[in-house]
Amino acid sequence: MSESTLEDTILIDRAKKGDRSALDSLIAKHSERAYKYAFRLTHNQDDSADIVAEAFVRVYGAIGNFKGQSSFGTWLYRILTNCFLDQKKHDKSRTTESLDGTVRTEEGNVTRQFESNEPSPSDRAERNNREEVIENAVNRLPDYQKAMIVMFHAEMLSYDEIAAALDLPIGTVKSRLNRARQQLGEILAKNQELFNYI
Questions:
Q1: What's the pLDDT score for residue 128?
Q2: Domain boundaries, the chain
Q3: For an engineered disulfide with 23, which of 15, 31, 161, 191 has Cβ 3.0 to 4.6 Å away?
């Protein structure tokens, strides 16, 4: 057992006994990695923050049920993935408004103004072109495949850790990850023009 895992185990035991500071320490320890994973899935700061906040609310509510069959980090990945998938389902059912619309105020109609969260043109120019091409292709995958690709290739989780996080047999993880890679290859092959920049 690694020192980090031992520390998690001690904090979890204290948290189960009602020590809120132990749970706060556990969350603080894992918050940066949780946010990075959520951001890799959403590519949006606000959505990532919402997913992490929801995940930690679920952790607070369920820490008493944590049985330790997997590491806390693996359990957290499962919760984060479920929050991401729940958010995507919610987003699909959400109504949208025109960006060209106006808002009625006491002074009359005011044109909507939106602040862009997009990187500046100079930031985009500095971005590694190959990563951009692959990122675009990964974003076109179904959400579940995208989560598995990010867990394995970006978060460097093992097959065992992914299987534990998604509550799937290891063989299913391997076959689904292989299918996700094949689909990723097909997307990249169909979009050869994306490679003109490399």
A1: 57
A2: 1-93, 121-193
A3: 15
Integer Cα distance of 155 and 161 in angstroms: 11
Place of tokens 């002074």: 107
Tokens representing 192? 């050869």
Output the pLDDT for position 54: 94
Cα-Cα-Cα-Cα dihedral of 120, 125, 126, 128, to 10°? 120
What b/e sequence results for 63-92 when a residue is b if at least 16 CB atoms lie within 10 Å of its CB, and e otherwise?
beeeeeebbbbbbbbbbbbbbbeebbeeee
Class of domain 1-93: mainly alpha
pLDDT at position 122 is: 47
Write out residues in the chain with pLDDT < 50, as ranges. 122-126, 197-198
Structure-token match 């043109």, residue found: 121
Find the Cα–Cα–Cα–Cα dihedral 65, 2, 25, 28, rounded to 10°. Answer: -100
The confidence score (pLDDT) of residue 107 equals 67
